[in-house]
Amino acid sequence: MATKVYLSLGSNLGDRLANLREGLRRLSLHGVVPLQISRVYETAPVGETPDPRPYLNVGIWAVTELSPDALLNTVKTVEAELGRVHNEGRWMPRTLDIDIILYDNLTMDTPTLTIPHPRMRERAFVLIPLAELTPHLVLPDGTPVQELLRNPQTQAQEVRIYHADLSVPSD
After folding, report:
1. Count of domains forming the chain
2. Any catalytic annotation for residue 94?
3. What are the pLDDT digits (tens) for 2-22?
4. Is residue 54 part of a domain?
5. Domain of residue 57, CATH code
6. For the segment 64-97, what is each residue's pLDDT rounded down to a tens digit?
7. Which domain, by its residues, includes 54?
């Protein structure tokens, strides 16, 4: 049975838009089929990065028959296929970064995977696309996404619409 998942994709190396497009295409090939794609947003990097290049970010609702752990393996595979090296460090620039934000209404916390994503509540580049696609969404713990968007720290983060089209890939 297919499960609805919300993923956040970002890129700040190379042709950022092409990286996002190719990531979406490859996710489809691996059984993660995008249903809705947010607008593209441009944001400053988060964390203690030595590289100030801005990210392009999108959020997607997709369906998959993969388990949460299999989805994590798929995400890591697609990132690697696009040149991401996972041992470079936490805040390093990336050709493609894919985070599993929500997996239906599942809540889980294992050594390798936490759902909902543990830092989603503090990242405007995750919350804004999520609210764009599902304005009245309530998280598994009962928190409305709109409430998180009213947080002054979230509102202080610079997130700009990047005018580009990322349509659902079809193969």
Report:
1. 1
2. yes
3. 999 999 999 999 999 999 999
4. yes
5. 3.30.70.560
6. 999 999 999 999 999 999 987 655 555 567 899 9
7. 3-118+158-162
